[in-house]
Amino acid sequence: MINRKDLDLLKKKVLESSRPIFFFDDDTDGLASFILLYKLAGDGKGVCVKGKPVLEESYARKVDEFMPDRVFVLDKPMVEQEFLDKVSQEVVWLDHHPLQDNKNVVYFNPKKGNPDDDTPTSYWAYQAVKNDVKGVLWIAMVGVLGDWNMSLADEFRKEYPDLLPENISEPDKALFNSKIGELVKIINFNLKGPTSEVMKAVKILTRLESPYEILEQSTPKGKFIYKKYLAVNEVYESLKSQVEVTKDRLVVFRYKDSKIAVSSDLSNELLYMHPEKVIIIAREKPGEVVMSIRSASVKVSSLLEKALVGIEGYGGGHEYSCGACVKKDSFEEFLERFRSLL
Description:
5-stranded mixed beta sheet; 342 residues; 5-stranded parallel beta sheet; Diaminopimelate Epimerase, Chain A, domain 1; globular; alpha/beta; 15 helices; 2 domains
């Protein structure tokens, strides 16, 4: 866990920043973490880091362009040391993935206190800000549940009983059988597509006051977010209809590059529908294949690590949920290795 002293230090770092920049992961956990700290700061710039689990050295130019007084990194599993070396400002990194050993960074991660604690980043951001920023529990719950975690369920249910029924206690059921799960999907789909379009949606999301603005499309801002969701969902449902599930324990679905990446979303839903399977959703891009890998019972991260040995590529994440990228020419070899290990 992250103790109260460290959470207060994180809050202090945010409050002392007059012009912060926030680099956040392109999922609901990363987004919610950004919104929570952004609301605490009252100002700043958000940068959605899309496509890769690592914050690369190239993002240092964003720091040079904005000239912040402090840099925050949220929910990114890895940060290149070259990025940290290039940035002259203090860098504060809040994450919950496997521990990294970087220098020149103030690093908050619950695994420091307990190696088995992977409570989402947005949970810790919420714990840091909740006494100072009101009306953000629903944002935190979207982030936490989007990472298949129910840490805030009891607190959230008291305030929004209609969005999370009493009889739902598991994250998969909450994601696919509740209104808060629907909200997670809506907001997550607003993180798809070109970065410029994503940041328009993010700007609107920072200004929402209630989840019902979206769920009931009761305001122009809520209608905007819901309209974007419908457009992405059309693509998503088309891809989902093409997936074939056979008696094979391993489900592999490979699709061509599109402007909308839905691999993680599709792998999550397929795992919910077929918990006995190991899921690999592979998105083919120019020269490479990007994968989302899921299982309910197999520690796919260790299989991934072994399957990548000697293959040009990278990957990582959680034990039962991770991502990877390999060169297009190496995908079949990777798949053969992974299947053999499985």
